[in-house]
Specification:
The structure holds two protein chains of two kinds. By secondary structure, chain A is of the alpha+beta class. Chain A is built from three helices and four strands. Chain A has helices at residues 11-26, 39-44, 68-76; strands at residues 2-6, 32-36, 52-55, 58-62. Chain A is globular and about 30 Å long. Chain A starts with a strand and ends with a helix. The mean pLDDT of chain A is 84. By secondary structure, chain B is an all-alpha fold. Chain B is built from 18 helices and no strands. The chains are: A alpha+beta, B mainly alpha.
Chain lengths: 77, 347
């Protein structure tokens, strides 16, 4: 599974990354988590409000930090 | 530098923190923080983004770009991605530049703090002029760089389209709390009315929003406080020191009065400086104490938050060096002229 965190180093983007890493660890999900910081690449996903979460190329959320349950749902699908 | 002098400077910095962050100032910032937090968490930004789409009506996208800064970008770090998005994915260089210029100037916190510290005339002038001028900047950019019909890719991703009515009511209640202390001067009435207003707001917030949403709102508010206040403290501290070490004569010579050159120097130096959210206010206030004119103050308020060396670089990377330099020159020229005009009008 490929997970990308979109965000140019803002505080919330880091928080989202921590959250995703935590959920992945707790559920034993083998995921490659990367942070996308380049504005142009973020825009390629059509995301303008960071942070954004992309799972396997699919934008799940943009503009806010999702709840832990939501992240779990997306990662375990 | 002798230790005594150093100690004296430290003292000046601390004094300044006490003045600028006095109780009455903090009291007016608290509701503003709650309002900003509510905007960031409860307001679904996607509903505004659709006005920036590639196929949106030009009049609509310019207008929305000019005023939506207060709803979309509470923190300056969100402005650049939105700018890039509007430029590349949506309505193009015109509305994008309009947004880039107006957004940092019209966020709720900035306006409240400017009004409180520098006076209501400058606070209001800042907001109104920023909105009007952002339109001038945007339209000029669009005019100069007549869009070479670039294909807008895929468009803008949006999520959900929530009910907005309740958030609108909440914003009105919070605004009332924000403004009431300014209108009513009688202490006893004020206390009673404030308590009633706060109780009403608390009651309806509980009724209108889910626990989850409330938690998010509080989280967002706290996040903003944590993010903005430490830097504000540092800014205020140094503003106090600036007053001590910067010779008055220089300030008066370069940015005193209301000469066109004073306004120009104010605009261009503010454009190069980096101000974190709200710190522009104490710094400009410090310079005013040293003799900077009202016109140059406004020029600084307009050019300062909109531009800084680091964000010039990012802007350049997004729209290219040529467009960026035209944008930067436009901001400096327009800030100079409006500072000059405002100074004339005041005198």
């Amino acid at each position: 599974m490929k997970i990308e965190i979109l965000g140019s180093g803002c505080a919330k983007c880091n928080k989202l990354k921590e959250l995703v890493e935590k959920v992945a660890n707790e559920n034993g999900i083998n995921a490659e988590i990367t942070k996308v910081e380049d504005i142009n690449k973020i825009l390629d996903y059509g995301v303008m409000i960071t942070p954004g979460l992309v799972v396997d190329g699919d934008v799940k959320i943009a503009g806010k930090i999702p709840s832990e349950d939501k992240v779990k749902e997306w990662l375990t699908q | 530098m002798s230790p005594d002098y150093l100690l004296y400077l430290m003292n000046a910095g601390v004094q300044s923190v006490q003045n600028y962050l006095a109780l009455h100032v903090l009291l007016c910032l608290i509701p503003a923080f709650f309002l900003a937090g509510a905007i960031a968490s409860l307001f679904s930004k996607e509903s505004v983004l659709k006005f920036f789409g590639a196929d949106a009506n030009a009049y609509v996208s310019y207008t929305v770009a000019a005023v939506s800064g207060c709803l979309l970008a509470v923190c300056s770090c969100t402005v650049l991605p939105l700018f890039a998005g509007i430029y590349k994915r949506g309505a193009g260089i015109g509305p994008a530049s309009t947004f880039l210029f107006s957004a940092p100037a019209i966020n709720v916190l900035a306006i409240v703090y400017t009004a409180k510290i520098l006076g209501y005339d400058l606070g209001a002038a800042r907001a109104v002029i920023a909105i009007l001028l952002s339109l001038v900047v945007g339209i000029s950019m669009a005019f100069i760089f007549e869009r070479k019909q670039q294909e807008a890719k895929k468009g803008i991703k949006t999520f959900g389209d929530d009910e907005h009515k309740k958030s609108a009511y909440l914003f009105i209640l919070l605004l009332a709390i924000l403004i009431t202390p300014e209108i009513i001067s009688n202490g006893r009435y004020l206390g009673v009315i404030m308590i009633v207003l706060i109780l009403i707001t608390a009651h309806f917030s509980n009724k209108w929003f889910t626990k989850e949403e409330l938690k998010e709102w509080m989280g967002e508010t706290w996040f903003l406080v944590k993010q903005i206040t430490p830097l504000l403290f540092i800014g205020v501290f140094f503003a106090g020191i600036i007053v001590e070490i910067l010779p008055k004569e220089y300030v008066v010579e370069f940015v005193g009065g209301n000469a066109l050159s004073s306004n120009f120097i104010a605009a261009i130096s503010a454009a190069l400086m980096y101000f974190s959210t709200l710190t522009e206010v104490p710094i400009i206030s410090a310079l005013t104490i040293l003799g900077m004119g009202k016109g140059p103050s406004l020029a600084m308020l307009l050019a300062g938050p909109a531009l800084s060396l680091p964000n010039m670089i990012v802007i350049g990377r997004i729209i290219g060096a040529k467009k960026a330099s035209v944008y930067i020159s436009l901001i400096v020229i327009i800030s100079t002229i409006s500072g000059f005009a405002y100074g004339m009008y005041i005198i």
